[in-house]
Amino acid sequence: MPRLEVELAGLRLRNPTVLASGVLGLSAGLAKRVEEAGAGAFTTKTVTREPRRGYPNPTFVVLEHGYLNAVGLANPGIDYFCRELREMRQRLSIPIILSAGGGSAEELVEVAKRGVECGAQAVELNVSCPHVSGMGVELGHRAEEVASAVGEIKRLGVPVFVKLSVHHDYIRLAEACLDAGASGFTAINTVRGMAIDIYARKPVLSNVYGGYSGRAIKPIAVRVVYELYEAFPDAPIIGVGGVDGWEAALEFILAGASAVGVGSEIARKDLGLFKEILEGLEEYMEREGFNSIEELVGLAHRS
Fold first, then answer.
1. What are the catalytic residues?
2. Domain span at residue 183?
3. Strand ranges (DSSP E) for 127-242?
4. Which of 17, 48, 86, 270 matches a 20 to 30 Å C-alpha distance to 298?
5. Which pLDDT tens digit goes with each residue over 16-58?
6. What is the pTM for the complete model shown?
7. What is the CATH classification number for the domain harbouring 286?
């Protein structure tokens, strides 16, 4: 039987699937459902220092080849969310990755420290959300500031992943973060886009712009993972963007991802998507003669 276990910056995952941030990530009860569905690790929704109400509806629209959302990083704030983190730590046996957001390095560090105190086993810095003013992509453009946050958070003794965007000079940002002690990367976040109602003759989303996700962005995400692996072959990568089955997951792994994030396609296939991916990977590995996932990581660079 092929081995699906992977090592991710010191985290041991029973398989290479990770719940991506922003999907089912706000409660311990949902986290337990994700674990039972087969995920190898769980990433929380992005949490900020203060509570955020987010944007008014409409915040989500289904498009022909994907999804467009502008929720506005709505969350209850890290102090409240600590209750959920503590319960997650009690109930889950898979690693818990806290997605930390903020408008400055100081805010990221505060959220990360509190989250680790409350049970998070790793931190993912969301410096790539494309639709929140003053946070996300805007912070990610300031590579030195993000790197300073990485250095501070690394002292907490947990892995630190930086979530990258195609809207950055992501190779430069990645290099700065690695120099500061980053453990690895998550690539990519959603792509900035918009939709217009042709009868109302105005933008669909209340925020006008949103983050585009789903199958349509997979080729873009695979390309970014491939480039990151070429530049930094020793840095583990969580590949995210349009993972809708085992073939898509395998593309990311062959491009250089050690694990794959499963996100918005859950809206279409439900949590059964995890089992579908894992069964498909096992069958492929048996058929093609591979003994472990690690043998496949980055193999497209050597073929």
1. 129
2. 6-52+74-191+214-301
3. 160-164, 184-187, 191-193, 196-197, 202-203, 210-213, 237-240
4. 270
5. 999 999 888 889 999 999 999 999 999 999 999 999 999 999 9
6. 0.97
7. 3.20.20.70
